[in-house]
Task: structure prediction
Amino acid sequence: MKEYILIFRLDISNKEAQPTKEQMQQYMIQWKQWIDSIAAINQLTEGGNHLSPSGKVVKKNGINDGIIIENKVSVAGYILVKANNLKEAAELAKSCPILLAEDNSVEVREIGSSS
Result:
């Protein structure tokens, strides 16, 4: 099996788009169930993590405050999974609870080998 990263993209900059405390509790239940379902079939490599909404962008000509946000969407977190191919990894991502919100997405990318 190959390793894939599932990159979670959502609007982390808009305060109105942020869930309430009660909504977040429900989302965490759904999230845990989804992660547990991947672990149960032995395809979870690493549980991943969420990313802070603040950061810096380093370019050749300097360091800028802030993160890259395109169309109000930014990378909010990731997990690593195992799958036989890109299609199978994308199928795992299809049931991610993050997709319940309209403009959220999951980017699926193969992790290249070091050899």
